[in-house]
Amino acid sequence: MHDLEQTDAAHWPHPQERPLTPAVLNVVLYQPEIPANTGNIGRTCAITGAALHLIEPLGFDLFDRRARRSGLDYWDKLALYVYHDWDDFLAKNPGATIFLATTKGSVPHTDMVYPKGAYLVFGRETAGLPDFIHQAYPLRRVRIPMRPEFRSYNLANSVAVIVFEALRQQGFPGLE
């Protein structure tokens, strides 16, 4: 069990206990390493109505104060799901329409069409996504344009950029 103060426990239902419900959009973080990034991404997901899926191992305790602080008080409004590994994620999300956000993508993120309920998969901050995931989705790899002398954007910023493009294409459902 996670080490939570009794007063916080009511605001933190264990992700495995949540029923999987359809979302307008799904953000998937493959083995995230930095708690503040995950907290910021959780906040973005809660505000936009996207679900957040985390694939273990995580580089931090999900209930780390840095993750909680960067997510503000939105955690109880977030559809959050945690999986033991990639296979567990696939088994629990059959038929998922998956897109990879990667510096190895050749298609700009604005040129891809994201249907309602799409799963946007982002890799680790330091290593990105593993080759076996890249190989499984060669035609669904997108990248955010950037100057060639740089490696990558911050993960939380990348998620926000692509989430808002996908939601823009869908007419910003549920947002005002």
TrEMBL record:
Its main location: cytoplasm. GO terms for biological process: wobble position ribose methylation. S-adenosyl-L-methionine binds at residues 123, 144, 152. It catalyses: cytidine(34) in tRNA + S-adenosyl-L-methionine = 2'-O-methylcytidine(34) in tRNA + S-adenosyl-L-homocysteine + H(+); 5-carboxymethylaminomethyluridine(34) in tRNA(Leu) + S-adenosyl-L-methionine = 5-carboxymethylaminomethyl-2'-O-methyluridine(34) in tRNA(Leu) + S-adenosyl-L-homocysteine + H(+). The keyword NAD does not apply. Signal peptide: none annotated. Could methylate the ribose at the nucleotide 34 wobble position in tRNA. HAMAP family: tRNA_methyltr_TrmL. This is Putative tRNA (cytidine(34)-2'-O)-methyltransferase. It comes from Candidatus Avidehalobacter gallistercoris.
